[in-house]
Amino acid sequence: MKKNWLYPFLFLTLIVLLAATKPFTVNSPYGFTKGTPEIKSISALSFGKDGILFIGDSKGASVFALDTKDAKNTEKAGAISMTNIDQKIAAALGTQKENITITDMAVNPVSKKLYIAIQNTDGTPVLLKIDNEKIDAVSLKDVYFSSIALNDVYAEDAKDARGRLLRISTISDMSFYDGKLYISGLSNKEFSSTFRSIPFPFTSSQDEASLEIYHASHGRYETTSPVRTFTISKINGKDYVIASYTCTPLVLFPLDELKAGMHVKGRTVAEMGSGNTPIDMITIKNGNETMLVMANTARAASKVNYKNIEAFEGTLTERVAGTAGTPFVLLPSLTGIVQMDKLDNNQIVMIQKKQNGDIDLLTVNDDVQ
Amino acid sequence: MMYNKKTKHFTNRLYHAYNLLFFFILMLPACNETQSPGIQVLWNRKQAVSVRIPTTLLPDSADSIPRFLQVRAAGDTTATAIMGTYLVGKDILFEPLIPFSHGMQYEIFFKTKKLGVFSIPLTDTTDLPKLTEIYPGVDTVPENLLKIYLQFSHPMQEGRSAGFIRLVRNTTDTLQNVFLDLQPELWNEDRTVLTIWLDPGRIKRALQPNLRLGIPIHEKENYRLVISRRWKDAQGIPLQKDYIHSFVAGSRDSLGPDPSKWIIQVITVAPKQVIEIDLTKPLDHFLVAECLHISDPKGTPVKGNFEITRKDDRCRFFPEKPLRPGTYTLRVETKLEDLAGNNINRPFDRDINHSKQPSTNTGYTRYFKIN
Is there a contact between A98 and B232 if contact means CB atoms under 8 Å apart? Predict the structure, then answer.
C-alpha cells in the first residue's frame, strides 16, 4: 500500500527540488541565467557577437556578459551626435553634470547603437543607451547574463607605492576577439601587468600572461604598469595585441604567446610622448589604408598607418627624449577626447570636451584631420 | 526551556522596537523638506532612494499611470523625465536609477499637470564635508617636495581633483602643470584621503619635463595651496569654504630618512608608558605608521597605535598593554620616505652615473630598552 504513493511522492519531491535549485535556467547558447547581476562598478565595456555586452567590473573583480537583446542588424550606421551630452544625461538621471562621470562607452557592432557607462558621485554604476539621439536606461534587473570572477586580483585595500588602490586597475581595457574576451589590467603577481584571456561562453577557464615592456621615455623595463588601452589586429598576417601605456609607448605582443603562465616581452615600436595617458584605440579604414587611431588625455588624438607599424621591425631599447620609432600624425581637431569607439569601418564616434567646457557626443569620418 | 521562551519573546519585542526606531530614523530627514502634502521621500543610508506619490493626487481617469507620470528636476527647461521605475499599488512608488541629489528640487507631472514638488535637503548642517588636514603640515618644505595629502571628513567625489586644487605663487600667480594628472586618482579605500603628486617628471633632473618646465616649486618662494569650496563629497554636498594652506619652499633635500640618527625614548603619558621617536626631520605622514613595527624581547609584534605629530617629525607609539622590561626592537621598512620621496635605500632623484648603487635592504633595525 505504501509503495503506491511513495514513488509518485518521491518523483514530485525531486521535481520540486530541481525547480527550486535551478529556477531561472533557460536554453541559451551562452549559458545565461535570468537575474540581477551584482555589478559594483563599470570600468570597461566591450561588445561580443549577437548583442552580447561584456561589462568589466574592477571593484567587483568580475566580468559580466549581458544579453542586451539588441541584436537587430543595422547595415549602415548613421552618425550619432548630441551636444552637451553630460548635461542631458544628468537631467535624465535627475542630477547635475558635476555629479556624474562617463567611465566608458562601446558601439554595438550589430545594431550600431551606442552604450555608455556612467558612475554617480556615490559610486552607483548606470548603463545607458543612445538610440536615435534619445537617452535610454539599459536595465540591469531581471536580465539574462553570465559572469566570471577574475583570478589573482588584488585585495580591496591593497595600494601601490603612490597610495593608489590597486583593485581599481584590475580591468583597464577589454576586447572580444575570435571567441575570447581579452582583458588588460593588473594582477597580484610579482609582474603585475597582466593580460587575461577568457573563452566565451564562460567556463571556469581563464588564462593569464604577464607583460613586460621597454619604456624608452623612462629608460627602463617595466612590468607593473597596466596597459591603458589596446586593440587586436593583424600585422604582417599575424594576430597582435597593440597596446599603449601611460606616457604613451606603443607596444606589440604576439597574441599566440599570451598564454597561461607566460611572461611575454613586448616589442616597443613607438614612443609617442610623455606626460600623457592614452584613452582609447581603434582601427579604421581610410581609403585603401588601415589606420590606428588613439585618443589621448594631454594632446590631440594620434593616427598611425599600419604599413608603418609593419615596416618597423626592431624594438626601442635605448632611452629616448620626446618621440621615437614608428611615425605618426596628430589630429588637431580631435583634442579633448574623453571617450572614443569605432562606429563602423569608416566612422569614429567620440565624446569630446570643447575648449569652452561643453562636452559633446559627435561622429567623424575616417578622413578627419 | 522557560528561560528560552522568555528570551525569544524579549528578542522579538526588541526586534520590533528596533524596526520602529529604524523606520522613525528613515523618515526623519523627510520632515525637513519643502514638499507637497502627501508626497513622501523614502531614505536609505542617507540617500533619497524613492518617492511615494499618493494615487489621490492623480486624475480619476488615470488608466495608464506610469506612461503619463513624470518626475523632473525643477527648473529643467528641457522637461526631461527622470529615468527610473514606477511601482503601482495603493500608492505609486517612483525609484530613480540613481538616488535623488541633495540640494535639488523635483516636480511631479501627470501629462502637463503639475501634481506637486519635493526637495532633497542639502544635508544635516552639523555633518557637512570638511577638509580636515593637509600633509605635510610644516611651514617650510623642500623645493623637491613630492607628495601632498588631503584628508577629508567625508568620502569625496573622485576623478575631479584637478579642477579644485590650485597652487599659487606669491598670492597671485596660479601655477600650471605642477601636479601629476593621474586617472584614476590616488584615493584611499573610503575616498577620504587623496594623494596628489607634484609632477615627478619635473622634479627628476634631466627628464624632458624638467628640462622644459623646470621644477614645480622654487627655494625661498611663498606658495598657497587652494582647495575650492566647489569640490563635492560623494553625496554631492560641496565643501563649505575655500581652504588655503601657505608654505615656503626650502632647499633641496636629497638625503633619505636615517633611522640610525633617530632618538628613541620611553616617556610617560599618564598613566601609560609611551615610546617616542624623534625622526629628526619631517617624513611622509601616512608611511610612518605603515613602515614602523615594534617587537617585544621574544620577537612578538607589540600591538598598539602610532600617532604622528602635526609636523611629521616625531611619532609616539601607544602600546595596548603595559610594556614589560627587556630589549625591544624597532623595525623600519626601507620604503619609508621623506617629503621629497627619498626612501631609506635611495634618493628619489638618483644620478645613475655618479651615485653609489642603492641598497637592497628591506628593513632597518634599532633596539631599545624598557627598564
Answer: yes
